[in-house]
């Protein structure tokens, strides 16, 4: 149940960011749900392999920053998978990752 709530909140964040950031475009809420699901799957699989060496190099001292950067990379990667989802630049992806992290902490 927690996974579904997190998925819907992340989809809402993605859709909300289209109104806040002009460089983010998403077609509808259904696309936002699919994109949030792909971002979650990429974070769980590929993100783990990226986070581990980065945390080892930094000795885990900036683990939160590493998690934000890796999530932003996964968001940009999800941008390549969908035609109805577009992010121009890395900074909006980093802002979306930050908002998702804050919302995840509040949940």
From TrEMBL:
Q: Which Pfam families match?
A: Phage_holin_4_2 (PF04020)
The transmembrane residues are: 32-50, 57-75, 87-106
Which residues, by range, are in coiled-coil regions? none
User: Do you know which InterPro entries this protein is assigned to?
Assistant: Phage_holin_4_2
- UniProt KW keywords: Membrane, Transmembrane, Transmembrane helix
Q: What is this protein called?
A: Putative membrane protein
């Amino acid at each position: 149940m927690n996974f579904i709530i997190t998925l819907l909140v992340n989809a809402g964040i993605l859709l909300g960011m289209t109104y806040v950031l002009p460089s983010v475009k998403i077609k509808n809420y259904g696309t936002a749900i699919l994109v949030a699901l792909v971002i979650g799957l990429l974070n769980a699989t590929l993100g783990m392999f990226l986070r581990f060496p980065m945390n080892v190099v930094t000795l885990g001292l900036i683990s939160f920053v590493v998690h934000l950067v890796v999530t932003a990379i996964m968001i940009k990667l999800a941008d390549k998978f969908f035609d109805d989802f577009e992010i121009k630049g890395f900074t909006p992806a980093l802002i979306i990752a930050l908002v998702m992290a804050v919302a995840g902490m509040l949940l």
